[in-house]
Amino acid sequence: MAQLSGIAASNGIAIAKAFRLENPELDVARKEIADTEQELERLHDALSLSIAELEVIQKRTAEQISDKEAAIFGAHLLVLSDPELVGPITEKISSEKVNAEFALQETANMFITMFESMDNDYMKERAADIRDVTKRVLAHLLGVTIQSPSMITDEVVIIAEDLTPSDTVQLNPKLVKGFVTDIGGRTSHSAILARTLEIPAVVGAKTAMASIENGTLVIVDGISGDILIAPNAETIAQYEQKQADYDQQKAEWAVLKNEATVTADGQTVELGANIGTPKDIAGVLENGGEAVGLYRTEFLYMGRDQFPTEEEQVDAYAAVLKGMNGKPTVVRTLDIGGDKELSYLNLPKELNPFLGLRAIRLCLEMPDMFRTQLRALLRASVHGNLKIMFPMIATLDEFRQAKALFLEEKAKLQEEGTPVSDSIEIGIMVEIPSTAVMADVFAKEVDFFSIGTNDLIQYTMAADRMNESVSYLYQPFNPAILRMVKMVIDASHREGKWTGMCGEMAGDETAIPILLGLGLDEFSMSASSILRARAQLKKISKADMASQVDHILSLSTSEEVAEYMKTRLGNA
Length: 572
Hints:
The protein is of the alpha/beta class. Helices cover 48% and strands 14% of the residues.
């Protein structure tokens, strides 16, 4: 038996024979051509076929999974119609009189190399998008059939160098018990889709394709990130038991679906979910979510070539509010910039977009766009319990400007006779250290805080969380971060306000007891984590954890905090 390790991308255990997803080599040679018009027509036909295929995949993804995942293919369609990509290909065919295959590959490789050299996961994923769509076009030009996961007829574990988004959405969870890839990370499209489809997955295994033969029995541990190759009977039995235990645990969590989230000493907290589209509401309710702690509205704006209209936005926000049936719904206004771009905005390139014109800064710079979103939210507000929060607030003046625009649009709608709710809470994301330090001042004017730990940690530690060279500095348990969180929670409570958290930390099993002790009021996480968190909180005494906070905050390093929690969790 051999063993490999990678990145645990999607929880669960899979035991099945390996199916190597190997695509044929798309060999391209440079050829001189005489009829450039005919070559351009070949390129056009291949692009048209690829676009038609992607439109089918996009539609199927929206119907079977969600609009959020379907947006991936909207981005792919934009790539195929992008004049910055198609233009240089046609120019190369016409000016150099070369075959379409060569012109396509040369141009695509130039863009792929450029994007892969950037220290930014979002831009690296754009390289993967270009590779995916150009491979499809190239296959049509060469008349080659690419292996499709949709043709799998037996229970298997897929082994691949990588799975493209279009590969992943074709996976049938009844047959594909798990997958392993040589490359990729937890934020890659395939990993995100695996979690949505609840397929156990390990990515970034590096040598899986070189180590695993077709038909070999494989165990994929999506919890630990281990892959066992040709396991013996004893190991198989152990993992079958582990699989049964995990399924049993999920069944036990499911019993808590309709229960309130109450700690061992009778204290109530709220468990919400982070969502991207109205279709995600079904998952929130199926997992017993008590709120939407973060509705990322940017997905409404992505995967298209123009801004969503006010009516489109009203429909989307109203659908979420109605679906939550009166439960709290926190909607974050447009958070574009940094690792999320809109092609139709035509913003200038920035040296450091994470610290540039993004989120509330962009909205205040483009008030007409912002006002449209605020009007849509106000019009939808009568359908539920709406709370609005502004992202990336750094100064009190930014909050005041944003709130003033909200109040202006509210007054206009009321003058028009349009009904709006009078109980909308207005809060802010706390993700910039200056805001956390001034939380006592902000707390006098906002209705609530929501701590976005993903950015708060990287800004506090001055370390790009996507940069592998400094990833060791992404430390949720660093005492500096915990002290900052306490500062925000205490400031809100002194003013009679509440604080939630919508970063990855809110669903972390080690962090949850600490955050409970710090007094966090609302935990917002992926919907699939809610029942596990509820089961954990039922076993923890808030008073006990609160009594340990001073000691935890006195520790010197992230490692000391994690080690302390490891030894104390059993007593918490």
